[in-house]
UniProtKB/TrEMBL annotation:
One of its GO terms (molecular function) is nucleic acid binding. Residues 1-79 form the Integrase catalytic domain. Pfam families: rve_3. This is Integrase catalytic domain-containing protein. Residues 56-66 have a biased composition (Basic and acidic residues). GO terms for biological process: DNA integration.
Length: 159
């Protein structure tokens, strides 16, 4: 199930810039130091170590960033209910809408190119930004810039 369909939009950082996500990286450093060295002999034993770590980290250990409170003390459940069937994104009239094929391929402008199997059979939006250049979206997320040259699609990473 796509998180985007549930209204959760991913936040991206620049490649090779973990400092842009410092809190998350710090949690992984602590997890590695306290729960993986040395690793347990079995998966079940390792899972028990992870479970103990999660309980301590969330329920017992105060965090400076939370005013020396625990994450569990700050948690509140979402007021939104989980839909029985998440709906695919919808797009404004300013976008051309195409459905990604079951093998992750996009047909557009007489061309056919691989985009991603993760969004197979899902609608995507193409927003024109220049002659033969579009931005490719899945819901609110910019995936790539698409250029059509000689009936060939060229995808470039989104900036």
């Amino acid at each position: 199930m796509s998180w985007i369909k549930l209204g959760v939009v991913p936040e991206r950082i620049e490649p090779g810039k973990p400092q842009q996500n410092g809190r998350h990286e710090r949690m992984h450093k602590t997890l590695k130091a306290e729960a993986t060295s040395p690793p347990e002999a079995t998966l079940a034993a390792q899972q028990r170590v992870f479970d103990r770590f999660r309980h301590e980290y969330n329920d017992q250990r105060p965090h400076e960033a939370l005013g020396q409170r625990t994450p569990a003390s700050r948690y509140t459940p979402s007021r939104r209910t989980m839909p029985s069937k998440p709906s695919s994104p919808e797009y404004p009239d300013t976008m051309a809408v195409r459905r990604v094929g079951d093998m992750g391929r996009l047909q557009f402008g007489g061309a056919n190119t691989f985009v991603s199997k993760l969004i197979a059979n899902e609608p995507v939006g193409l927003l024109p930004i220049a002659d033969d250049v579009w931005e490719l979206y899945y819901g609110p997320v910019l995936l790539a810039q698409v250029t059509l040259k000689n009936k060939e699609l060229q995808l470039a990473k989104a900036r």
